[in-house]
Amino acid sequence: MTSEPPLAGYVVVDLSTGIAGAYCTKLLADGGAEVVKVEPPQGDPLRGWSASGSDIVEGADGALFSFLACSKRSVVADPRTDAEFLDTLLAGADAVVWTPGSDLTQHRDFGPAGIHRANPHLTVTAITPFGLEGPWCDRPATEFTLQAWSGGIVGLGRGAPDRAPVCVGGQVGEYVAGAYASAFTLASRMRGGAELIDLSMLETSVLGLTYYPVTYFEMLGRPWRDARRLTVPGIARAEDGLVDIGCGTAQQWFDLCAMTGHAEWIDENSPLTITQQANEHSADLYAWVAEQTVDEVRDLAGAFRIPNAPVANGANIEKLDHFVERASFVVNPRDGFTQPTHPYRMAPDTLRPPAPAPRLGEHTEAYRSWDRTPEPLPRRDSLPFEGLRVVDMTTFWAGPSCTHLLAMLGADVIHVESTRHPDGTRLIAGIPATEAQWWERSPIFSGLNTNKRGVTLDLQSPTGRDLLRRLIATADIVVENFTPRVLESMGLTYDAVREVRPDVIMVRMPGFGLDGPWRDNPAFAYVIEAAAGISWLTGYPDLNPFEPYSVGDPNAGIHALNATLLAVEHRRRTGEGSMVEAAMVDAALNIAAEQVIEYSAYGALLQRSGNRGPTAAPQNLYLTDEIDEFGRRDCWVAVAVATDTQWEGLRDALGRPQWAQAAELVTAAGRRAHHDLIDEHLAQWCAGRTGDEIVNALWGHGVPVAKVMQPHRQTELPQLTGRGFFESVEHPVNPPTPHSTLPYRSTRGPQRVHTSPAPLLGQHNHDVLRELGLTDEEIGRLEADGVIGTTIAR
């Protein structure tokens, strides 16, 4: 049964260009919002965009635009002559999504601060590279240079040690920023709007492409990774294609040894990490994979419960059996190509089916006679999610990143673990078990769980499961991210949970979904990225793809938050709960959508190209003359020339050398055709300069540029410092440590994000159980029986 979309009647004026704003408003349109896209007379540049450079027939639109603009309306306005029309649109809207870069948004009356002043009822969500304020707010940037500044290019040791580090392919940072912008727009709605949301794409890149590196470094005194190395076996070539196999835990490494017939490699007392052990045996592992077909490898890995996936691309992805059975792709309603379905699923089904994208100006005349007075939303001065209670049954990264955002914005989030099965991030800090309270020393757990309360319940026991049900009866939202069989084996299906709390919102975040042939496969970021096609575009064309090993988890988390907020709005309107299925792979398919779209629309298979990309030429990394903190000549800068004006700026910064005057370099097509020549000259120029010298020279001439930061050095960026992106958090076991916050600033706060440290194991057992009506004597018996506890069970 289909219900009215939760955002029906919510009007959003879209003043954005580019992918981030378009994806933000696509998610809002999917939820039922009336999105009015305002375009200049020449139209949004995305209408003429194709990543493969395919010809777009005159009068038609690019396929990516047709995907991102589903269910929207288009009006044309010239800011020089249509100021009154724009004022009417803004006065009648509930929210505005704004990005710089068009004639409309560059007009002095239609900047975000001006719009907010003139229309104080609005939520104005501004998406900019660095934020609206701070020392770098006016500096040029691209998605590529933001990856470099964030540390996301270095990532978690991605790449080969004998080559430059490599970006994550496919413009994923744009989509992630759009997903954050959508969620924070919805969060603003929950407290009545009337605020300016200043979202920084640098900050969303930090959260989406790195793994709490500052907290890790400051707490433990060492970086997560100090060198690039291939993941082994990672993405390997089988007899008939590429397959991804990974080991996220020691047990998975032991199982991989057994699966490949090398039980003798298992050494539970080895001083080496599982990564180091795998690298020692890489030749044998690759040889074993090469003798199997992809299906044979995956069947065996599935039987051993080792994370695995085929490496998908635009040509093969829609034919994979799992996606066929789950109907993961649909036909674009206007232009007939293939596109992913919604990034999450809901029961009751409240998401709007995609309607055809509008032609340029199709709805202009209808809105010229528009006369709407927005219905005032109840304004609350509290944080958006204050008053919501969340039972958080998540672990590792994807699930906790969703519930962490709920906690940082005011929800009472109760994180449920057990002493036998604590949150997996407690166990990955490399702290010897001989140290006191070693399980409290994880920077990753700390980074993901501030502002939450923590309880332990033995869910293998009837008493523990009964207490969980009593806790759920007090909750608005339940979130979990196990494989489907885990909760089902405990009898905690949505129907069972709904018996306890009829209007509950249950958010399930399995890797591959609740059904389909892959549903029970364990899922870590890398296999999700491979299965969705993100890995295919990451790396060099002459090597196997590299695993991004980053975006799969936080991308799932922010999409799950979007779905949760739609379910909350549905409940507010109807009193009815929901079951949300926010599979990691569905979120990943959406941010990798361009591959299947380009292939089905134009027959073009997008390929990885190292650090080059479709939006800029030249675009690459270049060595500086510096030695890094590890004693290596491994310091790089990222340069991306996205416009002819920026090319002129680059030529000026270089001193207008003779080679740069060549006529064939005047156009973007010419620069792309002669990229090798430009790279050779830029590499020579950069090799004699420091990163700071290069950045100052190029930024001074309007050229997007960045130093490739080690991610644990993020606190050295003046822009992050100036915006207060890191806050120091006190902790009863660990020293005060910087923690990343939210990737936006709001005119309505909060002024400080982190109000309490991540909970100690079972820290709030007594508080929470007393809230459920238990006496101190009863709680004492639970401790004696091992149902609850505060130390890891051995």
Automatic annotation (TrEMBL):
Chain residue ranges for the region called Disordered: 339-361, 733-761
SUPFAM superfamilies tied to this protein: CoA-transferase family III (CaiB/BaiF) (SSF89796)
UniProt keyword terms in alphabetical order: Transferase
Transferase among keywords: yes
GO molecular-function term, one example from the UniProt record: CoA-transferase activity
Pfam families: CoA_transf_3
Protein name: Putative acyl-CoA transferase/carnitine dehydratase
